[in-house]
Write a structure and sequence with these properties.
0% strand, 104 residues, rod-shaped, 4 helices
Amino acid sequence: MAETRKTTVKKPSVVNLQRGGITPRRIVNGPLEWYELTEQTKYVLNNRLSSSLKLRLAEERSGYPDPKTIENLNADIHEIMRIKSSPNSFRSLKTMKNILERYA
């Protein structure tokens, strides 16, 4: 019978780590940090949108609605909807951090 040898196959990520190509921080925290910031940004925008919609409805139902307040709330609602629907808002960590600083 022919002699068979077992060969060790290293995964590419392990090889890159050993060579210093990829740092462990990027592997461990990168996707989690991205996910965390994405969820926080969506949460803050949804809360801000919800409160603006409630305030606008309350103002419209009041005895003497203020058109300027309703106009400001409408502008805020449209701005938040534009940010939420734009894919560019969630493409970089810096952009998401700026959105959180502005609306949180």
